Amino acid sequence: MAELETRLRDHLRTALGERHLEFAERPIRLTGGFDTQIFAFRLAAALAAFSGPLILRLLDAHHDPTRALRERATQNALADLGYPAPRVLLATADVTLLGGAFLIMQRLAGQPLPKVRIGAIASVLAGFQARLHDLDPVAFLRAVTREGLEPRSFTFDAHLAHLADRASRGRLGGLAPGLEWLARRRPPRPEPRAVCHGDFHPYNILMTSAGVTGVLDWPHAIVADPAFDIATTLVILKLVPLDIADLAAPLRWLASAARPLLVGSYLRHYRRRRPLDREKLAYYEAAACMKALVRAGELRGGLAGEPAPNVLFGSAFTERVLSRFRALTGITPTLPPAALPVA
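The structure assignment produced for this chain is given below.
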């Protein structure tokens, strides 16, 4: 931690042109984030933009370092369009500075939505997702293009191609029939399209007693059919084990029993704002399941390069995803066997 602190301070001194820059509050690691390290800090006597509470989002070494630049372009484009994504002040793909690519962004006030207003999850989730889908996708693509990103990389076709490439590199041949099904059944390009988050769930929404302060975690954003985004959220709400959430055991039991009600309420709230095609929704839910299966396969094959086991992709979640994909498509994909725990 001390080495990270020193390297971060030295980099900021150079980047901001302030030779004597110091921390007003030294970096403290925060909980949350399945594949990044998150630190909160504050600088002393820094430039105005850097004078408030800040977040360091450090990507693990296995990530493509250009992801940091994509996240910066995405979040700043959304902030410019009036959506509450935290503005990124600095980003680099240089992994030699801190051991991984990273972003420095504004730290927004609040806590995850379930910790503030658990009874409002469905309405807040649907409302802010619909608000995202109401943004002008053309203006968003123009903004990320100005940052040097290729607009085609923000398409659903690029998303599917990326999944197929990862499955091929991971030697996940058991997923090939499912990927072929997705390619054959691909719906026509929707018009109008929408900016989609790709991982929109309650713990990515920050909130205070006064309301929502921000929406976090944007590496999966694309411009696609809004049903893609809704389906990804449905897979999370329906299938992710509640024992990974920071809830007491009685609340986890209550939340599990209330899941069908939450899903139904979420869909009703969204449909009040925007239409949804059930057939397309089923297709994109299968696509969201495939994304989870590719990730699970990479982890089982030891190809993800992560320093510690990923608590989300345990056998219970993976089996639920396999079962849901089979129910949606009639296809039974297979994965490498899970590694045995080390005694």
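Interim note for the steering committee: The chain has two domains: 8-106, 111-329. Residues 278-300 form the longest helix (23 residues).
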